[in-house]
Amino acid sequence: MKLLKSLNLRGWLLVGTAACGVMLAGAVATVGSPARAGASLEERKLPMKFGWVACEPNCRGWVSAVGIITADTPKDFDDFARGRQLGGATVVLDSSGGSVNDAITLGRRFRNLGLLTTVGITQQTNRQGARPAVASEAYCESMCVFLLLAGKKRYVPEAAHVRVHQIWMGDRADDAKAASYSAQDLMIVERDIGRLAKYTFDMGGAGDLLSLALSVPPWEDLHELDAAELKLTNLVTTNLIADVLPHVDITAPAVAELAPKTQARFGEEPEPQAAKSTKTAEAVVPTGGAVAPAAAPQK
After folding, report:
1. Residue 294, SS3?
2. Gyration radius from the chain CA atoms
3. Which of 2, 73, 147, 285 has the smallest set of CB atoms within 10 Å of its CB?
């Protein structure tokens, strides 16, 4: 048993145990609920959008990444990055997750550029001379957590919510227990678990992250990582906001109620023009204004 002190070996054993549990249960990718206030809530229901937030002269600026990860998101990021000097910049995430394989592709883009990551909501102001700020009470759920992991340096504010869940077939996430699954479905899920495991270790994450995520089925509430788990999974590499956003104001949310106390899964009540399948364990992404019904309150 002393050999289990090896991080990689221990991590792979955790993955194997969790994956077997997933398969025996009828296994498979969900994403978390929308959790922002006002008009920003609508943005989180839409495919991920990227924006450059300038705060010169004393602040370099950062990339705002809001929304869910679809099959188009890696290309959208490439288009956004073209012509910009993004090396070493910070990405501020506010996302409910999305496609497993496309999140992995995007995360590798982030790492290749040496990007830093954190969780937050960009707040612009109309006051002359006032710089933009970042509200710390934001949400990074499901596959967003693995985008967070892609940062060379990673900071999570105390008020942020980082939540994990099993990956599942998105078109059956609304009633996962009652749905039926083919051998092909299970093959897709097992394949994507393997890809996600390799990615996690490539990014410097711990096997505990996979174990925690793969232990939560889609009919239960997402598991919110506490401060100890953020360190255990190696999602956090620094406790200093200045390491990822120097000279930037980190504020409390400017609204009375940032998010509901219940959670829902994307993949429920999609609009007719839902994103095309990429043969991956992923959520079917709503592209319209339909609101997903809330799941049971958190325990």
Report:
1. coil
2. 18
3. 2
